[in-house]
Amino acid sequence: MTPAQAGFIAGGHDERGWDETVAGALEALGTAFDVVPDRGGRPAAGRRTWLDTFDWRLHRAGLTLEYAGRPRGGELLLSGSVAQSASGIAGVGGNAANAANSASAPSAASVRNPANPPTPANPADPAVISQPLIGWQAARPHLMCELPDGPVASRIGDLVAPRALLPVVTVSNATTTHRLLNEDGKTVARLLIDRASIPGPHPAPLAPRLAITEVRGYAGDARAAARLLGAAPGVEPAATSTYTEALRAAGRRPGDYSNKVDTDISAGRPASQAAATILLRLLDTIEANIPGVLADTDTEFLHDLRVSVRRSRSALKLFGDALTGRDGLTEDEAGRFAADLKWVGDLTTPTRDLDVHLLDFDDTARSLSAAKPDDLEPFRVYLEQRRRREFRTLTRGLKSARFTGLTRDWRDRLTTIRDGNPGTRAAPARSGRTQQAAGETTGTLAMERTHGAFAKTVRRGAAITPESPAETLHDLRKRAKELRYALEFFAPLHDRAAQAKVVGELKRLQDCLGEFQDTEVQVGEIRALATAMLAAGEAPAVTLLAMGEVTAGLALRQRAAREDFGRRFAAFAGIDGQRRISALLRGKPGR
Which residue segment(s) compose the domain that 279 sits in? Predict the structure, then answer.
């Protein structure tokens, strides 16, 4: 396909209006050219699917991945941004009449025939990386290990894994080509009209896209045609890509899922409403991940679910007493929800622990010195068998009446609290702290609970000595997590720069504590698994020796983390750290 001058979109509110705009565009071009349908007016059909991970890792990295289907196989197309994506007939900003000559006009490859996207060898399209595929189904999830080696796979592998690539939106398109002839009957340019729709029982059509492409040696005619097209009634510069339009038509937007606790709480809002808002956001994340967990799409669905459950439990500890008032939680209800959330955490732990072992397995095997990677293969087989059993238990639990009742009742009660104003109503008899929390504002609650979590973390950490048992570091890790969650929950109330300083030092401390605790847990689990494998007669001697080498390596990492603890804790909890938390809590009062 030769260079394109500009991309446009047919204006109008429906298919009838679009057809009228396209007819007007053809009429406008007919004032200077003979417009002849190519291939007898038969459209070239295509099907295109855009892919990303559930948490939009490609989008967040400024990348767009498209699969263009072919009669025989297909092609993955990776571009550096949505604006440069392989999006069919892409848009151009600015005035339509002079778009062809604008400095902001797209490159030769940014306006393309979606039925015939360029290959990697096309020198005009350096921003697009292409990888042909055979027998690849874009309609289902794919882990990176299922994507054949190639330029796209090598570019996105580390970014995507361990997540699966999922189909985000699919369009079926038909592109009709018209030749523009001069007075001598020579083809001097082409008009592409791309009509796309989202397939389904009730297809959702998208506005047609139009573009003029050059014929070598007739660049001036193509520019003239682009000016005529841009000036036609109803024809507008295409300011967004087909991908963006398809997402909008499908009711989606890039980044519409995140595991972050992003809420709209404000300092003056009743504390009970803010507490309910935060917990509802966490419940949204839990429920959003359930289908992916049950389908076992990738391991991060379970991880995000567990993190939100853990955050919910910490939130109840931090400010559960604020959920009070006439419509607030009773003590029995609070106890029941806390117990059920703990049950979900316990239910998900075995599968997640096995996921961690399997995710790290190849790196662990390659790190062996005395043993060979193959010596660990019986251990991998055992882990996979064990995970299948634990996963069946997990799915039964998530489909149980207890879990569905928890999410239903938890949402109902939290919604009632969030939408009411229980902080100003007569509250049932409760403890002194509960009565106080019932009348607090969110700003007061945030300051009190964040400062309390910080003080508790500093107090526990200062008591740790080189002789302290491992349990003390594990307890400190839990306190540090509670502080981190408090900072996340109340982030809208804090100055962003001050927050980043506190969280930065806290994260470095958490990384140290996490390395210490995780290696200890893994050592204990590997020993227990080795015992179970031995009892079942599934542990060759070389495998047990290799597992022993793995635990030795974990023990060395744990010792290094323990030695690093003092330095990390001093950086977080010293005078500078206390000044940072004070500056944070004295910062902007919120919106």
Answer: 268-421
